[in-house]
Design a protein that fits this description.
This protein has about 750 residues and is α/β, with parallel strands linked by helices. Helices cover about 65% and strands about 5% of the residues. The protein contains 24 helices and 11 strands. The protein has helices at about 10-40, 45-65, 80-90, 120-140, 145-150, 160-165, 180-200, 250-260, 275-295, 315-325, 330-335, 340-355, 370-375, 380-385, 390-405, 405-420, 420-440, 450-520, 520-535, 545-555, 570-620, 625-635, 655-675, 695-735, and strands spanning about 65-75, 105-110, 115-120, 175, 215, 235-240, 265-270, 300-305, 335-340, 565, 690-695. It has a 9-stranded mixed β-sheet, sandwiched between helices. Strands 10-11 form a two-stranded antiparallel ribbon. Helix 9 (about 275-295) links the parallel strand 7 (about 265-270) and strand 8 (about 300-305). About 35% of the residues are buried.
């Protein structure tokens, strides 16, 4: 597998080492929690430490698999499923006006997949087979009509009730592929869970399930980064039931269980229901998440802001309200609070996803065109859709996507978590273990020293590993910045080469035309000189008549460059060709050297900017690391030197040097006059046999410029890869091993 330069082998090696260290430390902490549960006197305290142990064991499993689990918690109908579908870009999760989600589902985002795949374990299928039989038994005993009346709050379950009554066996495959099949399967499973919850709550499958559906899916993005780092670890989004459903204490237990297994929490609130009882219940979950994982692992989405009307809370007021209610008041914390319209985002993302998969599809074939038209065309959407083109729908979708405000959430939260899943997963596990160790240390008076002493030592080890994870993150961010410099430099070199090419070819053209002029006939040269002087005459009576006649006469005689120099022998032609090429090379290499100096200055500026950012980041933790960085990084880094030395240039004799100097003097003296010369090619008959063409020379010069440009890019890349990058990697290696 080809190495991604953003994720160097050295960085991967240290990340794997930290992964082993974290797993080993979590194992020790798990054993300590078990010892503590045995050492404490009461059953209540013992159960508390057993629960702590289970949390740490689950965190260790996440680190083992490098899964960064993001649990999404929301009140009923806050738009949670629509948000997940907008992240994915396809309607994979079922969504209805009534409460929908009953069954937790793990969504693993994988950009390399071609289509979504839903996987159900054998244990899961076995549990639902038993549930199906129990439901069938209950419906058969009670009769269809009483069951329909009992479930009339959920009319969409009527068809399922009839199917269960007439179909004896539960028929569902372990794997479903494609958007439609995945959506149908999840809808079917959630409806079965809902029905079981309503008519046979004593055998609800959620209580016995240890494994839930796993959805592996590609996802859509509006923009592509210049540098796409390799995905280290996996971001797993966990769709959970709404914890505020009336009478569903079992669902609340399921939500709590999923939160316990997750590294991070995304809270979704309905803009229209911010001050309701449902929001208060979510608030309790937020406090638990902050207590266990820290505020940096909490994100908040305010959905349905498209329903904001005059007099409603402004975005700033919403931020203050959320910060106050949820206890996240710092500036850094409120940056993880986003206002969105999931409905707008999903309509646009779903349209773009289909268009991306079928770029030449007609409007009439677009399945996503109708829901998009309903959002962007208003009450007359059906008529407007009939006349719409794909290009018009694309423009409308872009505007709708922008209005959804979904892009900042994707870029700041989801994309960042995907890229940094592995270190964030480990850091979250350390946060959880540190939180539980702190609680243990606070109860030190009632615990033996055999428990409290290791707890303090483990907290110190966890802090040391956490600092290394911060360095790993800075290292990777620095590598990404280095990779982003390359295309910017290449573009700068390309622009410089265009300017250099124009200047070089102008110099060649002037030199060539001068030589062609020198070889013209005496009459032609005299007529050209007289023509120039005639144009510069002071005005006098009847001057315009003389000038008009002179122009007519001299236009028949003046010099007009043809782009070809004729010579008498092959040796003269070869010598002239070499002279012209070498003259141009000298001008070219002077311009290339100026450009290379400019590139070197830009590289030095980029290096200094990166160093300043690293110093600022590292100054936030560990004085030992900060001091080492300040004492070593600046002294180890040298300014770039990517000057391109001229090569392949002959050492000319004094005679040719004199000729070049005379050409330059001639150019300075005659530049205005040459600007008036006609460049119309004229036919001429000659007995000269050998000729040198300007177009041939120009082609050779273009090749030289391309070669110089490639060497300039190569030297810039070599500096970044072999000097700057290696120095930086050596620095981070030493910092991590301090």
């Amino acid at each position: 597998m080809k190495e991604n330069p953003v994720d160097s082998e050295a960085l991967k090696f240290h990340l794997c080492s930290l992964q082993r260290n974290v797993i080993e430390l979590l194992g020790k902490i798990s054993d300590l929690m078990y010892q503590t549960s045995v050492a404490v006197g009461s059953d209540e305290a013992s159960q508390k430490y057993i629960k702590f142990q289970q949390e740490i064991v689950q965190a260790s499993r996440n680190v083992q698999d490098l899964k960064l689990k993001l649990a999404i918690v929301a009140p009923m109908k806050a738009g949670k499923s629509t948000i997940i579908n907008a992240i994915i870009g396809q309607p994979l999760l079922p969504s209805r006006n009534a409460a929908m989600t009953m069954l937790p589902t793990e969504i693993l985002l994988n950009a390399k997949l071609k289509e979504p795949v839903l996987i159900l374990s054998s244990q899961f299928l076995s549990t639902f087979e038993q549930t199906w039989l129990a439901l069938r038994h209950s419906i058969t005993e009670s009769g269809i009509e009483p069951i329909l009346e009992q479930t009339n709050q959920y009319p969409h379950l009527a068809k399922l009730i009839q199917t269960i009554f007439f179909q004896e066996n539960f028929a569902l495959l372990a794997k479903a592929s494609g958007c439609k099949a995945v959506n149908q399967t999840l809808t079917h499973l959630n409806d079965i869970s809902r029905l079981c919850h309503l008519i046979t709550p004593q055998i609800e499958p959620l209580e016995s399930l240890t494994d839930f559906p796993r959805l592996h899916t590609p996802f859509w993005r509006t923009s592509q980064k210049i540098v796409q780092p390799e995905q280290l670890g996996n971001l797993v989004i966990v769709d959970t039931p709404g914890p505020n459903e009336a009478g569903t204490h079992r669902l609340a237990a399921v939500v709590e269980q999923q939160l316990q297994k997750s590294s991070m929490v995304l809270i979704v609130l309905d803009f229209t229901q911010l001050k309701t009882q449902a929001a208060e219940q979510i608030k309790e979950e937020v406090q638990k998440a902050i207590e266990l994982r820290g505020k940096e692992n909490l994100y908040v989405l305010i959905n349905k802001v498209d329903q904001r009307r005059e007099g409603d809370m402004t975005p700033e007021q919403v931020r203050r309200f959320v910060a106050s209610e949820l206890g996240i008041g710092d500036a850094d914390d409120t940056e993880r609070v986003f206002e969105i319209s999931a409905r707008f985002a999903f309509a646009a993302a779903n349209f773009f996803m289909e268009l991306q998969q079928h770029p030449r599809i007609a409007v009439t074939k677009l399945q996503t065109a109708r829901p998009l038209a309903q959002e962007v065309f208003g009450v007359d959407w059906e008529e407007d859709l009939e006349d719409a083109t794909v290009e018009e729908l694309q423009q409308k979708a872009q505007k709708l996507w922008k209005k959804s405000s979904f892009a900042p959430f994707l870029e700041t939260a989801i994309d960042a978590l995907i890229e940094r899943a592995a270190p964030r997963c480990m850091k979250s596990a350390l946060n959880i273990s540190n939180s539980r160790l702190l609680q243990l240390c606070n109860e030190a008076r009632s615990l033996p020293s055999s428990v409290t002493k290791p707890a303090k030592r483990f907290r110190s080890e966890a802090r040391s590993i956490a600092e290394d994870l911060i360095l790993i993150d800075l290292w990777r961010k620095s590598l990404i910045e280095l990779e982003e410099i390359k295309p910017l430099l290449h573009e700068q070199i390309r622009e410089d080469l265009e300017i250099i090419k124009n200047k070089t070819l102008v110099n060649l053209e002037k030199y060539f035309f001068y030589e062609e002029y020198q070889r013209a006939s005496v009459i032609t040269r005299y007529a050209t000189s007289f023509f120039v002087k005639l144009n510069n005459l002071e005005r006098f009576p009847q001057a315009h008549i003389v000038q008009r006649f002179g122009r007519w006469l001299l236009s028949r005689l003046q010099f007009a460059p043809t782009g070809v120099v004729y010579l008498k022998t092959p040796e003269e032609a070869e010598e002239f060709y070499d002279y012209a090429l070498n003259y141009t090379k000298e001008k070219l290499d002077n311009l290339i050297e100026v450009s290379s100096q400019d590139i070197s200055i830009k590289l030095e500026q980029k290096r200094q900017e990166l160093q300043n950012r690293l110093e600022e980041e590292i100054s936030k933790f560990s004085k030992k690391v900060r001091d080492y960085f300040q004492n070593n990084f600046s002294s180890n880094s040298s300014s770039p030197n990517i000057f391109i030395k001229p090569d392949g240039i002959k050492i000319w004799g004094s005679q040719f040097r004199t000729e070049i100097e005379s050409v330059e003097k001639y150019q300075k003296k005659q530049v205005k006059a040459w600007g008036r010369l006609s460049l119309i090619k004229m036919n001429r008959t000659t007995a000269v046999k050998y000729a040198v063409s300007l177009s041939e020379l120009s082609e050779q010069v273009n090749q030289l410029i391309e070669q110089r440009g490639e060497r300039l890019k190569q030297r810039a890349n070599e500096y970044l890869e072999q000097e700057f990058k290696i120095d930086m990697e050596n620095l981070f290696k030493e910092l991590i091993q301090l």
